[in-house]
Amino acid sequence: MYTPDVRRWTGISAIAVAVFLGIEGTTKITAGDRPELDESQALIDYTVATSTQTIIVILSDTFLMAFLIVFLACFRQLVTKARSDLQWIADITFGAGITFVAVTLVGDAMDGGAALAVMGITPDASVIRTLILGHSIMFGSTGAVLLALTSATAAYLTFASRVVPRWTGVLAAATAGSNLAWAIVGLNGTSPNEFFAVGGAGNAILAIFPWLVWVFCVGVTTVRGARPGTHKSGAPLATSAPR
What we know:
The protein has 243 residues and is an all-alpha fold. The protein has one domain (6-222). 73% of the residues lie in helices and 0% in strands. The chain is built from seven helices and no strands. The protein has helices spanning 6-31, 40-49, 51-82, 87-116, 125-161, 166-185, 201-222. It is elongated. The two termini are 39 Å apart. Residues 226-243 have low confidence and may be disordered.
């Protein structure tokens, strides 16, 4: 039975992630800025006006996360095929990434709950506020810690296995640093206009976006074929006879 090519699917999944990220970003731009959480009526009006956009974003994010699972599995396979001794570290990368996916989907469910809370029923500002805050924390500092672990171990795996170019490892290390920094400073209030606030622009710029850029870069490089110094199967070339 035909076995799908792991490098090709690494690239396909990464490109799909970029596509769905573009859909999310475009949709969020059309939604505009959320009002302050203590402006109850404005918050209700905003949630009512943007409920359709919110559902589109959540649906796109669900597909994005599904392709991230494929990407993480492919990356682990590339590494373990080249260096079986690195499997335990690759498992950490995969496990942390999968946990991030799960946390994000729970956060999306909260955000979707806020949108559904204004469809056909009397909106309650306190319910909407609670759901938005829960989503912001999970998508913010909680997710950033998990992405920092995923990125840091992925950087080590890149340097050790050479299954993807070294510069992607440098990018992963930088991504780990930016996510760790955001996890520490990203709990500074709830105002959407504050860069370092929960749900502020800093979350996208310092945490989520850099990691998805790394995913895309790794995916693109893998479809170009085996790395220099490796067999087509991914196993390292022997440089000397065993002693």
